[in-house]
Write a structure and sequence with these properties.
- This protein is of the alpha/beta class and 248 residues long.
- It is built from eleven helices and eight strands.
- It has one domain: P-loop containing nucleotide triphosphate hydrolases (Rossmann fold, 3-Layer(aba) Sandwich), CATH 3.40.50.300.
- The strands form two sheets. It has a six-stranded parallel sheet, with helices on both faces. The chain has a two-stranded parallel sheet with strand order 3-4.
- The protein is globular, with a radius of gyration of 17 Å.
- The termini are far apart.
- The structure holds adenosine-5'-diphosphate (ADP) and magnesium ion.
Length: 248
């Protein structure tokens, strides 16, 4: 990244809105489902966790703010639709902003001449979360995936006074990716509610040992590894403990 770009980015970020000024203390807690990568299990965890929270008596709204790779009409396979189906919510039924090309939101939006306004997205999420006990917000890609050329999901997290649930994979490389994600969240003073490692389709030599390593290195106690399960009931059972972290 050039120095010029770095400067622009720093400048654009300086007047970040203070969450306390925007969200009243009594508003629904917002948990961001933050992946260390794409295709890592964020949607799976969001759907399973929604069901686990509802089983515990919580009213849940699950929201995908921006989704790329969408067709002209909403497909039931889209993340926004999958997580909405998990809660049975009346709205939203799909991602708030749906874009065609399966690339970073900033690119897809630019190509479609769509303006993504993080403040407007935050307001929409706040409004859709009213009356819920928990709002789960599945972020696109990884933590620093750009929503626009000067705002990313960290800005959204700040505006909503959110906390982060980190989703990663129980495979080689995850220790580094997870620690990087946690380091940025901590630097940004976004609380980390816990870490979920999703079992990879194909285990490797590291599978089974990554959670303990992340626990030792990041000092995080709220950390679990979930097995590979397709059945809805078993999936929500697997993340029951995570639901407990959110309700504490
Ligand atoms: N623990 C798991 N058990 C079964 N399938 C899983 C699990 N974690 C992820 N998957 C599957 O792996 C694929 C990628 O997961 P997904 O949640 O869509 O990732 P992301 O939202 O991070 O892109 C999906 O087909 C999903 O159903
Ligand atoms: Mg997803």
């Amino acid at each position: 990244m050039s120095t010029e770009k770095k400067r622009t980015r720093t400048k654009a970020r300086a007047p970040r809105a203070k969450a306390a000024e925007l969200a009243p203390a009594s508003s629904t807690p917002v948990t961001f489902i933050v992946g260390t990568d794409t295709n890592i299990g964020k949607t799976w965890v969001t759907a399973a966790l929604s069901r686990a929270l509802m089983a515990a008596g919580q009213r849940v709204v699950a929201i995908k703010p921006v989704e790329t790779g969408c067709g002209p009409t909403v497909s039931p396979d889209e993340d926004g639709a999958v997580i909405a189906a998990a809660t049975g919510q009346s709205a939203p039924k799909a991602a708030l902003i749906r874009l065609r090309r399966p690339v970073a939101a900033a690119w897809a939006a630019e190509e479609e001449h769509v303006t993504i306004e993080v403040a407007a997205l935050a307001e929409q999420i706040r409004s859709l979360s009213k009356g819920a006990d928990q709002a789960l917000v599945e972020l696109a890609g990884g933590l620093l995936s750009p929503l626009t050329w000067h705002e990313d999901t960290l800005d959204l997290a700040h505006q909503l006074d959110g906390r982060a649930l980190v989703v990663t994979s129980d495979r080689l490389g995850s220790i580094n990716h997870t620690l990087l994600t946690i380091k940025v969240l901590r630097a940004e003073r976004i609380p980390v509610v816990g870490v979920v490692l999703s079992a990879p389709e194909v285990p490797d030599e590291s599978t089974g040992s990554n959670a303990e390593a992340i626990h030792r290195l990041a000092g995080i106690d709220a950390i679990i590894t979930v097995p590979r399960v397709a059945e809805r009931d078993k999936a929500s059972e697997a993340v029951k403990e995570v639901a407990g972290w959110l309700m504490d």
